[in-house]
Amino acid sequence: TVAFLNDQWMALEEAKISPLDRGFLYGDGVYEVIPVHKGQPVALNAHVSRLTRGLSDIKLHVNKTSEEWRSLIIDVVTHNQRGDEPADYTAIYLHVSRGADTKRHHAFPQGITPTVFAFSFDIPPPPPKQRENVNCLQVGLSEDKRWKRCHIKSTSLLGNVLHYQAAAEQGLAETILYNEHRQVTEASSCNVFAVIAGIVVTPPLDLQLLPGITRLCVIQALKSAHIPVEERVLTVEELLRSDEVWLTSSTKEIAPVSQVDGHLIGDGRAGEYWERAINALDNVKFTL
Ligand code: PLP
Fold it and tell me: What pTM value is reported for the model?
């Protein structure tokens, strides 16, 4: 694997950063995971605009235009191409931290250079597109114990990791999270959709959840396929009684869920709306 670190290309094993890097000490940074299907980045513009928004939200100035971010991502793909054929399914991890200071101090240091790191890794192929052939996930449910700026794709992921690990320890694939009003926010590394009486529902964007790029692609795909979709508050009680539940992320695309916290969803198999959504997704994923 070839990595990019501070304007240099190197073998991933050779990439080294200072222990005083604020990404290491404070999780002071933002990141992106951009899926690459057969050499083509998915929703590249949408990923770059979330990155630049995140950098500006945390007041981290990097001397790169959106065009330069896009070409960096494409260069990481190119540097990691094996042979003539692009690998089938990979993703680019792109991480920007505030950089290394000479001491440990909370306030932003003046005059340091941000750390920009990127590499490529293999991801599983997208799920099969027929409902009979896809595996469903069983997931847990928990009150969201993270911070109040979940719209930022922050590298401080301890809250997410602890929620994810709690699921893993029970043999579950994810944890769906809800706020103090028992409204669903998202999952520890995915966005959440539910199908209720023929309408696909997903929680509205606010500070409680990440504006997932797959979420955006799925909403676009549903709209272009004339499938009703609503961004609205979704309570835990509605979620548990819904006909279908899906989790979306760059590495999972749309994953159907069969059980939430021991409650069977629908008949416990991927549903008809899931099949329509996953088939509609291909028409938009390279356009955003
Ligand atoms: N929500 C959280 C907390 C995430 O970490 C992620 C992705 O890793 C998502 C949602 C899904 O976002 P995307 O579709 O951009 O991968």
Answer: 0.96
